[in-house]
Amino acid sequence: MTPDVRDRADRPARVESHNGVGGGAIPESDWNRALHLIKQADEVALVCHVTPDGDALGSMLAVAFVLRSMGKRVVASFGDQPFAVPRLLRFLPGQEMLVPPAEFPVAPELVISFDSSTFERLGMLGDNTARAREVIVVDHHPSNAGFGTLGIIDAKAAATAMLAEQLIYRLGGRLDRDIATCLYAGLVTDTGSFRHSSTTPAVHQMAARLVATGLRTDEIARELWDRSPFSYLKVLAAALDRVKLEGGLVWTYVTRVDRAAYGLPYAELEGIIDIVRRTDEAEVAVVLKEDDQGAWQVSTRSKGTVDVAAACAALGGGGHHNAAGYTSHATVEETMAAFKRELGMA
Ligand code: 5GP
Ligand code: MN
């Protein structure tokens, strides 16, 4: 028998929805089916989207801890080649549970996917996941059209970590400091340190449960937001030097050559959009980041009136109303022209 989640001291009096008033968006029958699938499986393969952020990797590792403590064989990975945890996330506990994609089962019994809205976002593990007997998709992207065999999807949840926390309780797991650190990384990442409009009472209530385990909010904040190699400042300077303000759009780009000059890895570019988007005169911000393969990873942000997810979805990507992205194989000029067309600016 599963212990009744309501009896647990470390969880709220009831499983609360994103808005804190109860009655979450996910039907009980779907949660029950997820629990059933997990309990039946000997091995559970966990996956999250490529170049994982704090929400993707944090949610996955938190659930991995709990599955492992239930005695499951756990495999956790993401489809990046070369396989490396982004430096920003190296402080996360549980990384010894990660395996490179080559060691991921070719046709798994059960996969749980975290924070990914499509098979494609799973990169080279998309095919393995598609071959799995069952795929539970834990996600909060509005663009998630429901891939896999069971969706634990709530587009109103501020982070996938909120769904991961519920899953943990429902599995009979408890929060310890390591699990809470992983979930907290997801919650702070996706709410922009509790600044975005998605920051509901339920978000702060979850944060309170996590912080109560004794995790170090100061150290996590420093790891995630407040450190970088010196070379980042040089590359940032190059990006800001060529920034353009066109109507309500502010944008810039960073090339492989910029990074190579200072030996800066691609993953270090994540924070540039947060500097560019502060521009008062712009409603929309874009940063084009050239990855190691020469493709442009397009980061877009809106202050609220423009739906950048719609524009990015039309260009083959996706995301949230105010934060979305896609991959472009065109030139900088062509990429920006296409994006402006989608915004109705051209
Ligand atoms: P970022 O600019 O931080 O890389 O991405 C912002 C958001 O856009 C992410 O949380 C993710 O939801 C979405 N996103 C970024 N790139 C892609 C992409 O290539 N495909 C899809 N479907 N979503 C993306
Ligand atoms: Mn997320």
UniProtKB/TrEMBL annotation:
Domain DHHA1, chain residue ranges per copy: 264-335
Chain residue ranges for the region called Disordered: 1-25
GO molecular function, one term: nucleic acid binding
Pfam annotation, one family: DHH
Comp. bias (Basic and acidic residues): 1-17
Entry-linked InterPro entries: DDH_dom, DHH_sf, DHHA1_dom, Oligoribo/pAp-PDE_c-di-AMP_PDE
Annotated DDH domain residues: 44-186
PANTHER family, alphabetized: BIFUNCTIONAL OLIGORIBONUCLEASE AND PAP PHOSPHATASE NRNA
Record protein name field: Phosphoesterase RecJ-like protein
Highest classification ranks of the organism: Bacteria, Bacillati, Actinomycetota, Actinomycetes, Streptosporangiales
